[in-house]
Fold each of these.
Amino acid sequence: DSEGPYLLGLASIAEPQELVFNNDIASIDETISVLGDRRYYRFSGTENELYDFLIEHTSGELAVRFRVGELGGDMFYEIPGRINTTTTNSTRSRSVTDFEISATDTWIIEVNPSGSSPNVLERAKGPFNLTVERK
């Protein structure tokens, strides 16, 4: 279709941001503003540690797929998801509790906007909060 409007953005794959834990809690507030952009975070996990994860978005239309996986020898953007869940514009939060770390290693969290239909592109952008608690 040669008639607009069109939305163009340049998505990137940035190295994972290190989570900083204060009193065993790390919390990040971010906004995804470019279609196709993803956010990656990393933390060092010790075998048998338990973690709680909460991803939420209280405003806007954002819908995300949330994954957590062990880095191992994989590229950070190719991790196999040990946790793989989604939020929607109506179910605005997902939590996973008592997730047990299976190996001492670097663990990766991926936040991937999942709005892909041309009629709902606004679901691929917006603010979110990620909270990780080490128990």
Amino acid sequence: MSEPSSATPMLLPARLVEAPAAKFIIGFAAGIAAISIPRLSALLTNDNISLITAFTPDYLAIVGLFGALIGTVVLILEYGVARTPKETFFAALAIPALVAGAFNTTMVSSQAQKTHEKMESFVTQVGQQEGITTLPSQNTPLRIISADENISPATNQAVQPSASLNPLGVAWAQNTQQVIQSNQNFNPGFQFDKTMYVVVLGQFTTKEDALQKLAELKTQIPDAVAVESGVQYMIVKGNQTLNKWEATKIALKIKHELGLIPSLLVIE
């Protein structure tokens, strides 16, 4: 007896596209997808999309021009070549995806830089109006000084830029701490200004005057520390550096709540 034969399914041949108009439409769709999907993804991951207009009329015009450009390029490269729509689409999507990614990154970085510049200008104006001056960077490192121990310069470390924030009232400086600590946080994002600051509560010519004033301020600002920079002595708030926005905010809070006139010291 012969075994029953199984029915073999018939595979339909893939539809090939060769018409120039179809090539242009496929390339146009690939270009629009490449430039629109990254921005749409960023919009969907935002918690409050009502405050964001991702697809402005100007951006839509650029999207249309970009899609038409990619469609034209695909039409030229694949003119007379019979391929499936899927093959043509992925071929058209390769290079535009890279170009569109760079385009979106450039636009985001440009907008972020403008926002940073506006905030920097606003913070500077507020500081000037409130009398918060900015002191130039010191040529010598800042070293913590103490009344009950002599710290050798060899055991001290310079204040270095730090991205950590130190809100008013958090006591960072402990009795056992001898140096101003630096804490570099990993940040792979765009960084437009790495200039960091410390909030200076007072400047003195002698160590004794600085330590005497420090003893008075400790009741109001527990994390205040006295530092030495060459022949000059200062009292600064906290033992970590801040960006200009945070430093100015803390300086304004100290001025209005304690009646002091603090200043900002640039730490490079």
Amino acid sequence: MPVSLAPLTEALLAAVPDAALVCDAGGHIRAANAAAARLLDADLPGADARNAATPENSLAGRSVFAFLDEALLRDAPDGEPFSARVGARLVHVHKTTQPAGLALVLRVAESLPLHRDVERLALGLTESVRGPLASIRAAIETLTEYPGMEEDLAAQFTTIIREQAVALSEQLEESAAALAEATTPLSLPEHLRAEALGARTAAALAEALAVRVDAAPAAASDAPDAVVRVEWSALERGLVHLATRTVHAVQAEALAVQLNRAGQMAALDLCWRGAPVRPERLDRWADEPLAPAGGASAESLRGVVERHGGALWARDADAAGHAAVRLLLPARMPANGRSS
């Protein structure tokens, strides 16, 4: 009579502090620990009432591909963790391939500042505005109490109010910027298939620009399953900056986002019909500071591209009159040759 390994599997999963689960070859979850249930099941309707005694049972039979990209998960090599979005959270995924399926360990990437940093900034703001406010209040009270004050003396009090108001405004702006920077999540790297990167890029540009933005279908790409490691928050700001400058410079009425393979790199092209961008102009754009992500930021598009190990250049118009700017990013090509 065969011996069931289920109790042993459940005991091993329960001993793992991170979210852990086991799937069959079809991606159906066969066992999971409570941490995995809290991570994956939290946003589903009725999660609190479902299997409250053994929450890990709420995942049994579900497809792991409802939470993680199937192609990204299947193509990821064992022993090389990758990062992916699960709902609104970024998680590091460790995969081990087994004869009967997959074993996964998921660890949430922590990116928010400690509460004491925010408290320190709030305390500093309180102390820094106390002086200017006291000076303004005293000057106003003096002017109100002595309405017949000599003109020169009244002008001095008016100057005090003006100078202290300027100082207060500058202090508030500095503190607001510092607070926003401290509470902005770090730009953590995640792994995306080229197809998903193209779709996400098109969506971000469509939201930011006043022109039509189209994403080329996966069938038109020769690298839809190439995997690219990106810091999306920083890359998104860079792409929006680049697309905004391009649209204004060439008066483009529409943009198309295309992903293709260039050797062992993924080529992200922003294409339009019309005149190309001059290389010297692209160089100037690349060195401009990007719009901050909540706080002060002097990072440039060139800095973002170089941090990704990529390159940026302008492409001349082809025979059909389509020009482009191209961003090259290192990519991992699937071993099965789907992107060859």
Amino acid sequence: MSGIELLGLAGGVLSAGGTLLGASAKAESDRAEAELLNRKAENERAYSQREAIRKAHETARVLSRQQALAANSGGGATDPTVVDLMAGAAGQGALQGQTILAQGEEQGAMDDYKASYKRYAADQTEMAGWIGAGSSFLSGYSGWSKFGKDFFGPRNYRYG
């Protein structure tokens, strides 16, 4: 076997190894990004819960202030107009709190979806790496076998 034959075979092996290493690194990067997206989803949900709680406290302060002002005005805190205003403020606060929670859940779900896609992409990258490595190896072997016919002994091909 001559040096050029060995170089052809070694080139195929090295190319296959490089393809596998590159695919593996890309897959690991995608999986790490997926993990970060899952953490981001959890943080979005937690943030929206904290904001909804803050909104509930704010609504309670507004209602307390309305009740105190109504009682101080002499009209009475149980006046139907005051009660209607307070019910409207309470409903608006509850709606805002639920909207904040829904937005956090929606963003979290989107980040979870992106993470699952990244994991899928990582799996596909690894599969493509193996296919590319096999192709590189076979290409190198093919080039080597053109020069390495003596290595396998005489060939008795018949054409035509």
